Amino acid sequence: MSLLKKTHYIQFFCLFAYFIGVDYGYCQQYDNKTLEQSAIAFVEPNVEQDPDSQLSITAIPLDSRIPARDCQSPLQYSTAMTPPFDTQVTVQVRCNDTLSWTQYVHVRIDHLYPILVSATMLEKGRVIQDEDVKIEYQPKRFRRVSYIEDKSILIGSRSKRNIREGQAFTQAHICMVCKGDTVIIIAKSGGLVIKTQGEAQQDGNRGELINIKNSRSGKTLRARVIEVETVEVNL
């Protein structure tokens, strides 16, 4: 018997049972959306939550040609996978009526992590302000090691290229100290701290060593970028 004919038969059987007063319990009808949501509900309690992420659990839509089906008893859910679930789970949804039916629902699990992206189109050379940065959540598989996670690195930095709206920030997009910038040089020797000015001879970001020309002496020295337009040297 085809699925469509079997479905129509069960629907007629449930309707007939209703009119003759026989209690067949549930006799509920399940469309694709209901099956997808129930499969998600089955999976959700068995997913391990990462406190640093947001959880997204979705079902891959079933074929729209599948008709709604009735079941006189509670649906049974099972999976061949062992919890806790992490990525994708195939859930078997089964109706154990005399005219039984089975549906497989694929449920996808994504752990969404925050990343810093551009809130607007940023042109090359623009000084990045707080309102230019926003947080978006993306699946772990889309994250890159080069993404900037510390917002303080971005604020006051300059864009080295055009950055489109929604694009994740990377070290390649910015310079905390840009070539030609006037920077503060902090020189440390024991407990002594001296501040002077210099001119950056190349681009650099936090932790990088770059060449700085001392404005007072004219000498070029190697200094480490520590903040926006600020470098440090040890005497």
TrEMBL record:
Domain (SAF): residue spans on this chain: 113-175
A GO CC term assigned to this protein in UniProt: periplasmic space
Keyword terms, alphabetized: Bacterial flagellum biogenesis, Cell projection, Cilium, Flagellum, Periplasm, Signal
Signal peptide from the UniProt entry: none
Cellular compartments annotated: Periplasm
Main location: periplasm
Entry-linked InterPro entries: Flagellar_FlgA, FlgA_N, SAF, SAF_FlgA
Keyword Ribonucleoprotein applies: no
An individual GO BP term: bacterial-type flagellum assembly
Family matches, as Pfam families: ChapFlgA, ChapFlgA_N
UniProt keyword annotation of Disulfide bond present: no
Chain's role: Involved in the assembly process of the P-ring formation. It may associate with FlgF on the rod constituting a structure essential for the P-ring assembly or may act as a modulator protein for the P-ring assembly.
Similarity remark: Belongs to the FlgA family.
Protein's UniProt name: Flagella basal body P-ring formation protein FlgA
Organism: Pseudoalteromonas piscicida
Gene name as annotated: flgA
